[in-house]
Amino acid sequence: MIGRLIHGLRAIVYPKTCLSCRKKLAEKADDGFLCSQCRGKIKKNLPPFCVSCGRQLDKRWLAKNICPACQKNNLSFDRAYSPCTYEGVIKELIHKFKYNDREHLGEPLSRLMSEFIREYSLPIDYIDCIIPIPLHKTRLREREFNQSEVLSKYLAQEFNKELVSNAIERFRHTRTQTELVTHQRASNVKNSFRVTDPQAIKNKNILLIDDVLTTGATSSEAAAALKSAGANIVFVLTIAN
What we know:
Distance between the termini: 45 Å
Helix content: 25-40%
Strand order of the largest sheet: 1-7-6-2-3
Number of helices: 10
Strand content: 5-15%
Structural class: alpha/beta
CATH architecture: 3-Layer(aba) Sandwich
Number of strands: 7
CATH topology: Rossmann fold
Radius of gyration: 19 Å
Order of helices and strands: HHHEHHEHHEEHEHEHE
């Protein structure tokens, strides 16, 4: 009874508001962080998907099952998936999650990823472990948490998978990818990852987690390091692309 009273008082003093439009949330809001209108504005990534980057394919490329960008790029991961497109509401939430000290957003954002896994029957049963894309220690000090690791913890718990957070490191400090144009991104992250615990990933099927996939350069470099150290299949899952 006391707990319910405290909860009620907290709701009066600090009412839950939509993190996008800032309107007060209904008491029984589905996810507790977005109103129904804003949740409806999230642009979902819909099939048919590119067999490499996972983006929705234009009808012109259905016969090849791969988008023009991926035909030109030699990406090291086996396939990437994303439940959302990186625009509007979801872009705003990811930005708040990463840069505005909103670590708690990891739980609802990871839920979008979990729902996508189930809806499209992603091969989660074949995954041996989940690995977050690491931050360089300098950026980790600045941000105080790794957003990819936060997402990974929720997903590992949801699907009962091993979480391996220290098998790979980002040993070279690079410029933020968002500062660069497309053709600069691959060279910026080239050879910036190394495996520190090969036995943890040897012959394993890995699900690599990050927040956003743009050109795929970062995930590709991490996947290349993992495969060079003995990993088997490397899939990538991000919130958006």
